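Why do we bother with a discrete structure alphabet at all? Because it lets us treat a fold like text: something you can write down, compare, and reason about line by line. To make this less abstract, here is a complete entry for YceI family protein. Read it the way you would read a sentence in a foreign language you are learning: slowly, and without expecting to understand everything at once.
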Amino acid sequence: MGIFSRRQSATTEPTQAVGPRTPFPAAETTGVELDPALRALTGEWTIDRPHSRIGFSVRHAMVTTVRGAFADYDSALYFDGAQPSRSRAELVIRVASVDTGVEQRDAHLIGTDFFDANRYPEMMFRSTSTTHVGAENFRMTGDLTIRDATRPVELQLAYLGSVLDPFGYERAGFDATTTIDRTEWGLVYNQRLEAGGAMVSERVRLQFDISAIRSVPLA
């Protein structure tokens, strides 16, 4: 998940968070010492879309990389600076919002060869455990659902800092990455190249550049 000040644009109201459906299980702590300042960050957070990016990258024709992102999603984040194992995240993404910068390619991605957005309009990540691994680094394990398949993934997550911005929002930045084999989620479409190899790599790197805003409790 990524740094909040990477883009210089006006802050907008954060989108409504999606509440957790059931209690999140917690991971065992590692005993690694935590920065006491992290305790002040404990609470509920929401992703600020204009200053965040939920993206991916994949090798194309074996010689270049295609990058894309999803613009429409809901989030529910809880960070516990004293007991990281209690931290949790849920992200629901509307796959029809995919944007790779090429309309024809986007249309192909949301069609039946890939996401099949008419049948499976959403994909979801829901954490199952969080472990502090040292300094400002964490490991978050969770279930990723694409189409009708749910499989575990492990995110390497880094806390990038926090700040009170000029608009009065308390922000925290996170960056997380993982690499998946898309065929494990039923995304098996491909074309073979004459010289050998595949038009689209089966390995996809997921990237979460997150500027999170502390949620204000409803009165």
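What the structure line is telling us, in plain words: The chain has a mean pLDDT of 84. The CA atoms of residues 68 and 100 lie 4 Å apart.
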